Amino acid sequence: MVHKARTRGALTVLVLILTLLGMQIPGAGAGGASTARAADNPAEVVQEVRINDRMLDVAVRSPEIDGLTHTRWVRLLLPTGWDRHAQRTWPTLWLLHGGGGNHKDWTANTHVEELAAGRDVMVVMPETSGCSGYSDWWNHGKGGAPAWETYLLGELRPLLERTYRAGTDRAAVAGLSMGGQGALKFAAAHPGMFKAAASYSGAVNPLYKSPDGGFNGPDAVKLGGLGCLTDWKRLWGEPGYPFDTTDPSDVRRRSIWEHNSPLHQAASLAGTPLYVSYGNGTDSGTGWQWGGPPPSPARCTDPAAHGSEAVERAIYGMNGQLRARLAELRIPATVCASEGTHTWPYWERELVASFPMLMRAVSA
Hints:
Elements: H1 10-19, H2 32-37, E1 44-50, E2 55-61, E3 71-77, E4 90-96, H3 105-109, H4 112-116, E5 122-126, H5 148-163, E6 166-176, H6 178-189, E7 197-200, H7 217-227, H8 233-236, H9 254-259, E8 274-278, H10 310-328, E9 334-337, H11 344-362
Parallel strand pairs: 4-5, 4-6, 6-7, 7-8, 8-9
Antiparallel strand pairs: 1-2, 2-3, 3-5
Helix pairs in contact: 1-7
């Protein structure tokens, strides 16, 4: 596969800012209740496209997906010997895209196809929306579509198990930015479902308040709403103080935001192997390229957040809070804070660095 790194520029930065929106799974109906709601699993496969010997794109229709077509794609990297009629099943690695992304992102921007070659694992790369938040949306208290958590974990997951021989008890999850938030949120909301979780530049605290007047978590959600041409309050409502009011007692829908925040739900990550990486907003080059030796631990220098790239500076602040909270709870995590920006070369490096841990968790 030819590596296709994205060009950088103002438009790319704007799209990646929307990635911050990836923060949590909205309030009522999230977690176990959402999975139960999908017990009858109305999701169905409507199309398959074989990309190559190992890559299969599957279009899935579900009423939990917003929009007139109610259809989204999922890209599968198939292990050697895979057959839909096999007597055995295969463990899965879920890779979640960021804001503005889709099911093609990981194969278009990393060497995941080569990385997974020879591993006894199925890689699952689902498409949501550019501002999904990997959440069952609040919708001003009405609930309903889009219900991304219900769709992914309550419908798509069992559909893959039933139709494509995905295993039922050996899965790991990882994601970048919005997907990093989703990976840790899913692991916290469904203990035991995923045997390991990794976040690369994850938007892990939607209630982040910048200490220097920079990007706040709710700012990113609002921009995400613009990018999706929808009312941002559909996700989790207004968070209240200190973002929407000067009255400390006016917390509005803060409980929804906290319920869906990896930072605020960190205690539920106990027992799950974790990998957390983030940069400081400074682009000095990754110091690594595909085909070379594994990324060196020397890259994890815990630099100060002095870079000029606004998105990763906010990510740096969020992840510093999560790191401190995990330490307070005495929850082990492999953490790499380094120089870096909100771009694919850094995310691919961290995918490669975390891949052995993810594979150990599913024994692939």
